[in-house]
Design brief:
Blueprint: H1 2-17, H2 20-35, E1 39-44, H3 47-62, E2 72-75, H4 80-89, H5 97-103, E3 109-114, H6 120-133, E4 136-141, H7 146-151, E5 154-157, H8 163-187
Helix pairs in contact: 1-8, 2-8, 3-8, 5-6
């Protein structure tokens, strides 16, 4: 029981300390991209890859507003044949950067989900998205957030040293962002 109470109490504290201002800035940035018909690319590794897939689902379906253009979100994590081809034939650092070169356009947004913020393949994708496409970079990180927090335009940090809390927080941020987008789209 002590572990359960400690874990949940720590998660509650981290969520309580989440910056509402940072989350709101992400909502605004995604609305700007939606208004410009920009594509939202979402990436992450491991548990963060699962959150990227979940966010793609929510941003594409949860935000539907009758009579309005839909969001165009894609999780590059969901194409394992392409991920494994780039990882095997080139380098794992290229598994997201190379597909971005095929799909990304100016004005698109890259959402990067990473507890550490230091995964080389994610940082390479950030570099390519910014340097080659001028993309806006949004990072969901742990604390302190590593290289991603230093390089992203907008960062939402989950203020906990616990990896589980960080990953739980990223999923909560996804739900808050996508539900806020849905609410805003109904009034636009």
């Amino acid at each position: 029981m002590n572990f359960i109470d400690g874990y949940l109490s720590g998660l509650e504290a981290a969520i309580h300390k989440l910056s509402r201002q940072d989350v709101s800035a992400v909502v605004e940035a995604l609305l700007v991209a939606w208004r410009a018909d920009g594509q939202i690319f979402i990436i992450g590794n491991g548990g963060s890859a699962a959150t990227a897939s979940h966010m793609m689902n929510d941003i594409n379906k949860l935000t539907i507003s009758p009579g309005k253009r839909r969001f165009r979100g894609i999780a590059l994590t969901d194409n394992m044949p392409l991920v494994s081809a780039w990882g095997n034939d080139a380098a794992f650092a290229d598994v997201f950067a190379e597909p971005l070169r095929n799909l990304m356009r100016k004005g698109d947004v890259l959402v990067v989900i990473s507890a550490s913020g230091n995964s080389p393949n994610l940082i390479e994708a950030v570099r390519v998205a910014r340097a080659e496409f001028g993309a806006q970079i949004i990072g969901f990180t742990g604390d302190p957030g590593g290289k991603l927090a230093q390089q992203a335009d907008l960062v939402v940090r989950v203020p906990s040293p616990e990896l589980g809390h960080q990953e739980d927080g990223h999923l909560i941020i996804n739900h808050v962002v996508c539900n806020a987008l849905a609410e805003r789209m109904r009034t636009e």
